Amino acid sequence: MPALDTETPRQRANAPGPDTGNEVPMPEQAYPGGSVEHQFWCRVEKRSADECWPWIGHRNSQGYGRFYRGEHDTVPAHRLAYELLVGPIADGLVIDHLCRNRACCNPAHMEPVTNGENVRRGIGVTAENARKTHCKHGHEFTPENTYIYPGGTKKGHRECLRCKRRLGQQLRARRRGVALTDNQESS
Fold it and tell me: Which of 67, 64, 120, 112 has the alpha carbon at shortest distance from 91?
């Protein structure tokens, strides 16, 4: 009876070969005859349906898994997992990790959303600012009271028009050497 092969494809791929040292071969060499899907799932640590399935392959500097499909075709691992198990992702949508784990490949933890919605759901400074409904002086961000920069370094940045007008009045008064009184201020 032949011995059971207990090595994983990854272990076999990284084993030293003749005259090659311990070089990591390209995916097509690492998994001869294996499908792209097989190569992909060998790099995912599948757990129960409610747990994260971490990507154990290469991750980029932001922590997202990257998968090389060959011929200079590298794709985000979580997007490929979603497409393999759920279906295509509509144009213009990105994948939101509901679990907040960028290396997770469990499609139950993902939802296709617009980039704007993904930002609003996030936890960074951009997300915090996007969720704000009032300026720091308490004025509501309404379409009538909000200026959104169209381009340049402030593209998409919101400003309260009431505060912007007030600042302009203060600067003009300072140039004239006049102090604004409370009844001259617009609040």
Answer: 112
182 or 96, which is more confident: 96
pLDDT per position as a tens digit, 1-57: 444 444 554 444 445 444 444 444 444 444 555 788 999 999 999 999 999 999 999
CA torsion sign for 99, 105, 108, 111 is positive
For domain 25-130, say whether CATH 3.90.75 is its number: yes
Q: What is the 3-state secondary structure (H, E, C) of the chain?
A: CCCCCCCCHHHHHHCCECCCECCCCCHHHHCCCCCHHHHHHCCECCCCCCCCCEECCCECCCCCEEEECCCCCEEEHHHHHHHHHCCCCCCCEEEEECCCCCCECCHHHEEEEEHHHHHHHCCCHHHHHHHCCECCCCCECCCCCEEECCCHHHCCCEEEHHHHHHHHHHHHHHHHCCCCCHHHCCC
Confidence (pLDDT) at 163: 94
26 touches 66 (CB < 8 A): no
Kindly report the CA angle at 54 between 28 and 111, in degrees rounded to 5? 100
Place of tokens 């599948």: 46
Q: Where are the domains of the chain?
A: 25-130, 132-187
